[in-house]
Amino acid sequence: MSQAPWKKYLCSTCGTVYDEAEGDADSGIAPGTRFEDLPEDWICPVCGTAKAGFEPYA
Amino acid sequence: MDTLRIPTELVAPVFNPATFGRRGAVHDIFTRLRRDYPLSVAEVPGYDPHWIVTKYADLREISRRDDIFHGGERSKTLISQAGEALVKKYTGGQSNIWRSLVQLDPPEHGAYRAVVAPSFMPDKIAQMKDSVHAIAKTYVDRLADMAPSCDFAHDIAFMYPLKVVLDLMGVPEADHPRMLRLTQWLFSYADPDLKRPGSDLTNPDEITKTWNIVFNEFKDFYSPIIADRRKAPKPDIASLIANGRIFGNEMEERAMISYFAIVSTAGHDTTAATTATGMWVLAEQPALLARLKADPALIPGFVEETIRWASPVQQFVRSATEDYEIRGRTIRKGDLVYLSYVSANRDEEQFENAFTFDPTRSPNRHIGFGYGAHICLGQHLARLEMRALWEALIPRLQSVELAGEPQLTESEFVCGPKLVPIRFAMQ
Fold first, then answer.
1. What is the 3-state secondary structure (H, E, C) of chain B?
2. Residue B14: which domain range?
3. pLDDT at residue A3 in the model
4. CB contact (8 A) between residue B373 and residue A26
5. How many CB pairs under 8 A join A and B?
6. Which pLDDT tens digit goes with each residue over B167-192?
7. Does position B84 have pLDDT exceeding 70, yes or no?
8. Model pLDDT, residue B206
9. pLDDT tens per residue across span B337-374
10. Number of domains in chain B
11. Is residue B156 part of a domain?
């Protein structure tokens, strides 16, 4: 597993934050899942925006 | 059973604003529709046929496909054939009096939303935490001064989010009552207590007439503010809208006035309805108040459940721009779909014990803020406002009970409590 720090990504539509450390339990995404490893059909759990609609979040 | 067409006598009350003053009746109808007619057609005299979308999963799927299901080509809200014809007359052929974020379709919608969206993202809302908590405290103090009784809806729930949002917008406090009045004319056009004085509820064109009057009232009010903010921008939302550029151009006038109107109305009315609902629930469930007092960490969950429970936006309507298959049905190009948020938020397939108020519900993926690209822009602000109020109020609220029968607005569009009489004690 990569030792790089966990990153966060922001949904550009609704502001939901995907935190790699936490994953997305509602969608079956385990904690520690890198954003780039999310399935391409993964969507924002709050508003349904596609993965491509997320941007890096400080 | 023919499940394609809903019996008119079953579904017609959903087209009548008065029905929504009786929440139990609304839930009875949609519970039956979810069971027997989950995605079927309503043919109500005076209206074009509508697919009635009752299920959570269907509503999310359709809302997410705003490339196919548009809001601007037909009325975005339920309207009669006569009313829609009058809209075209007033607007020179458009299908909506308003051209706000609600009615716009891609790619315009994204360009307009981007004008203020950064101001409503979580990081910006977090910066407002101290100021919102300070406003919440003043309204909790005001409530304490009213003990032992008040109408929580009118005295607190209507006024607190109005203050937060209109301060953010840059509207002088002296004009806040006028904004509240216009909001009620707009969203509660058919309610006998809140409607525009002089409006004729027996006239089926009334919604269109009232909305046109409200549009012009907003235009009169905001035109000087727009001129002022263009000349000298301030750190407020009014300046962002007044100077917003859409694909390099100025906003179209109807869209700009609508932008001001949507922030000045939807920005507080739905939060007010949800907050009033929360007090209504607490007044009926003393054990719930005791739980929240014992464990304030439950307050965020309480807020989420009040949003699901209240579901202030009852419906939006979209039109299909191409044929679409869903739930074994084919929605044809040009068909109208009625999205019932109040039904989706009680969908038994999505929410276990859907008719039980549960502040520990997790996850609580309610659809009170909508879904898809049109999801409520102000959702993070609304949550902050409600958490701030309840966090300040619940530790001081010793007891509360209903002092009379609460009343809901008679509105098939945005509906919430207009009267929540309470007897209470506070520290």
1. CCCCECCHHHHHHHHCHHHHHCHHHHHHHHHHHHHHCCEEEECCCCCCCEEEECCHHHHHHHHHCCCCEECCCCCCCCCCHHHHHHHHHHHCCCCCCCCCCCCCCCCHHHHHHHHHHHHHCHHHHHHCHHHHHHHHHHHHHHHHHHCCEEEHHHHHHCHHHHHHHHHHHCCCHHHHHHHHHHHHHHHCCCCCCCCCCCCCCCCCCHHHHHHHHHHHHHHHHHHHHHHHHHHCCCCCHHHHHHCCEECCEECCHHHHHHHHHHHHHHHHHHHHHHHHHHHHHHHHCHHHHHHHHHCHHHHHHHHHHHHHHHCCECEEEEEECCCEEECCEEECCCCEEEEEHHHHCCCCCCCCCCCCCCCCCCCCCCCCCCCHHHCCCCHHHHHHHHHHHHHHHCCCEEEEEECCCCEECCCCCECCEEECEEEEEEC
2. 8-426
3. 79
4. no
5. 28
6. 999 999 999 999 999 999 999 999 99
7. yes
8. 84
9. 999 999 999 999 999 999 999 999 999 999 999 999 99
10. 1
11. yes
- B2 lies in some domain: no
* Candidates A15, A43, A45; nearest CB to B122: A15
At residue B204, the pLDDT reads 76
Task: Flag whether B3 is in a domain.
Answer: no
Nearest to B380 among A15, A47, A49 (CB): A15
- Chain B: which residues have CB within 8 Å of chain A? 60, 63-64, 120-122, 363, 365, 371-373, 375, 379-380
Which of B62, B64, B65 is the mutation pick for testing A, counting most A CBs within 10 A? Answer: B64
Question: Which residues from chain B sit within 8 angstroms of residue A9, using beta carbons?
Answer: none
**Contact assignment for A15 to B121 by CB distance below 8 Å:** yes
pLDDT of A58 reads 75
Average pLDDT of chain B, as a whole number: 96
Q: CA B374, B377, B378 angle in degrees (round to 5)? A: 145
Query: Is B1 within a domain?
Result: no
B13: CATH: 1.10.630.10
User: Chain A residue closest to B377 (CA)?
Assistant: A14
Amino acid at position B340, single letter:
S
**A2 pLDDT tier (thresholds 50, 70, 90):** low
- Say if residues B230 and B109 touch (Cβ distance below 8 Å): no
Overall average pLDDT of the B229-250 stretch = 97
Between strands B245-246 and B249-250, the pairing is antiparallel
What's the rounded mean pLDDT across residues B129-137?
Answer: 98
Interface of A with B in 1-40 (CB under 8 A): 10, 13-15, 17, 25-26
Q: How far apart are CA A50 and CA B253, in angstroms?
A: 32
- Cross-chain CB nearest to B379 (options A14, A25, A48): A14
